[in-house]
Amino acid sequence: MLFFVDTANLDHIREASELGILDGVTTNPSLMAKEGVSGEKNILKHYRDICAIVGEGRDVSAEVIATDFKGMVEEGKRLADLHENIVVKVPMIREGVKAIAYFTDAGIRTNCTLVFSAGQALLAAKAGATYLSPFIGRIDDIGWDGMALIKEIAEIYNNSGFDTAILAASIRSPLHIIEAAKAGADVVTCPLSAILGLLNHPLTDIGLEKFLEDHRKANG
Ligand code: E4P
Asked: How far apart are CA 123 and CA 212, in angstroms?
């Protein structure tokens, strides 16, 4: 399973990259705004900076703001031209499906975002999306079962032989990452804190302390 970090914060991206486990980055307009990145020139520069940090072969999702087909295509092409790592992130709306099909034909990789149902997942795969982003946490937030959707989509994609990768998004915790892996997600995108949370186990800390103490006793 691939690990993407879900942020536009350059320090977090650098830290995840230095950990040696990072496969890519996803951003969205809210995450860019949170970092104070605004204006087309600054936004494009920020994407270039992210690509430079992660290095070659690590996908960076950059989301279109336009919601009409023509606008999405123009904006998506500009984003894709920025760097070979860029994957154009397109919302799951009618015009978005058309845009994904267009980008697929043009050889431009896509991430279909804001996915909340198996029907939407089917449409995105039919249009040839490279990645599909079901929002686990936001489904849990309304009292539904986000992970059940991952399982359902994994079953559908396996049955139909779709190549679209399931990118479990809106991940909130280390447990979400583990559950997504078990449910059949190909990729998780999560805040750095959730990835680092996977490290923690009290028995590791206790065990390491004892090893070091025994070493100190034996070696003075
Ligand atoms: C996915 O690509 C989105 O950027 C993200 O996972 C949304 O997460 P949130 O629900 O925590 O905002």
From this structure: 55
pLDDT in tens, 41-81: 999 999 999 999 999 999 999 999 999 999 999 999 999 99
- Helix (DSSP H) and strand (DSSP E) numbers for the chain: 11, 8
Strands 110-115 and 86-91: parallel
How does strand 110-115 pair with strand 131-134? parallel
E strands, the chain, are 2-6, 24-26, 59-63, 86-91, 110-115, 131-134, 165-168, 187-190
Considering only CA atoms, which residue is closest to atom 6 of ligand 1? 170
Q: List the catalytic residues.
A: 89
Task: Output the pTM of the full model.
Answer: 0.96
Nearest to 150 by CA among 130, 127, 179: 179
Closest CA to 21 of 201, 202, 196, 203: 196
CB atoms within 10 A of CB 48: 15
Q: Which residues line ligand 1 (CB under 6 A)?
A: 6, 26, 28, 113, 133, 135, 137-138, 169-170, 189
All domains of the chain, ordered by start, with CATH?
A: 2-218 (3.20.20.70)
Q: Residue 24 above 90 pLDDT?
A: yes
